[in-house]
Amino acid sequence: MNSKNNDKQITHPSKKNELQVHIVEDHHEVLPFIYRMMGSKILPLNGNILIHLDSHPDMLIPKGMDADTVWNKYELFNKVSIENWIMPAAYAGHFSTLVWIKPPWAFQIADGSYIFSIGKECSSGEIRLTSNLPYFVSECLYSPVDKMENIKEIRLEVVTLGTFIKEPEREDDINGLLERLKDRFPDCMSYVLDIDLDFFSTRNPFKALYKNADLYESLKHLYWFDTPKSEDSLILEEAVRNRKEQVDDLESLWTYVAENKCGGTEPSSRRWPAVKELAHKVKSFYKDIDWEIVHDAGCTWDNSDLPEHVTSREDIKKLIEKTFHNLIQTLNKPTLITISRSSEDDYCPPEDVDWIQEEIIKVLKKKFIIKVHEHYDE
């Protein structure tokens, strides 16, 4: 049953001030519900805060998407995916402060406070950022501010919670997080609380791709990229050009493999011998191979890979009862709560996702009067 047409609803006896909770499977599917709240004027159109609990930042930008796409929400919904749904909404002005709360096994962005500009790059017409964080530079998203228009300021707060899972003597500093936000987080300010269930336990699904050929680790050497530790725009622009050349070249080589089966006139790229060797290795173990997915897996490497930590139920319970419960009890009431299951693509272990979801809902019900809508296939 598709509950988009027949939402299941879990209701509290009192309907006054019900807090809407929308649960989806793929994370970018929360965006229409956020836009719906803005359309009904429950959530302001501009300047909101997004508090995002996830093992992944989800703060990339759809490749090749014109920045003006954000002004057509239906076109935008068709363009975004799980890793890139937040920043287009920030460029549109809907979010001015992003708070990524991450578990201790996520290292894509270091803990800290970051302020940067987001805008439309004049040359490409695409959304770009002035941040020199490796997460953005390695995805070719950096641009100097003087080469952009329609510029807005974004504040990004990154904080790790649940460190006690790996370091038992450590305690979560939730009050410290709120102290950092207080100048942008008055009691009256609207915010969206967004939860990916893979915050509590996550896999890197690409590790299992053509595993007998040791594909994922082999891709590391082809796609590895060290971002320069610099604030010099010329150095960062050169890094973006180098990374783009690397990724574009590898994409064309895998396309050649798919179309030519490693026969015919071979490419002249210096990376070809390594690609050819890896392609032969994969083909020695597997018959039907999706070379486009091989490239996608490679693109998850820069100077790190995707996080993986399949958490025991005992530790998941600790994360829920300590970290999540304390966070919810400390926060003011959000305007909207969105939840992503992320289980069909194996980021959140499917064997645990229903149980995690049930436990999360229990915690929310202790603080808020909620109405839950499940927008995924049973």
Describe the structure.
The protein has 378 residues and is α/β, with parallel strands linked by helices. The protein is built from 11 helices and 10 strands. The protein has a 10-stranded mixed sheet with strand order 1-10-2-9-8-3-4-7-5-6, with helices on both faces. A hairpin with a 5-residue loop joins strand 5 and strand 6. Helix 6 runs antiparallel to helix 8, helix 7 packs antiparallel against helix 9 and helix 10 packs parallel to helix 11. The protein is globular, with a radius of gyration of 22 Å. The chain starts with 7 loop residues before the first strand and ends with a strand. The N terminus is likely disordered. Belongs to the UPF0489 family. InterPro entries: UPF0489.
Listing every helix as H and every strand as E from the N terminus to the C terminus, the arrangement reads: EEHEHHEEEHEHEHHHHHEHE
Q: Describe the biggest sheet?
A: 10 strands, mixed
Largest sheet strand order: 1-10-2-9-8-3-4-7-5-6
Low-confidence stretches: 1-13
Q: Return the average pLDDT rounded to an integer.
A: 93
Spatial gap, N to C terminus: 6 Å
Using only C-alpha atoms, the radius of gyration works out to: 22 Å
Briefly note the structural class of the backbone.
alpha/beta
Count of helical regions: 11
Count all strands and give the number.
10
Instruction: Give the overall form.
Output: globular
Strand content: 15-25%
Q: Level of helix content?
A: 25-40%
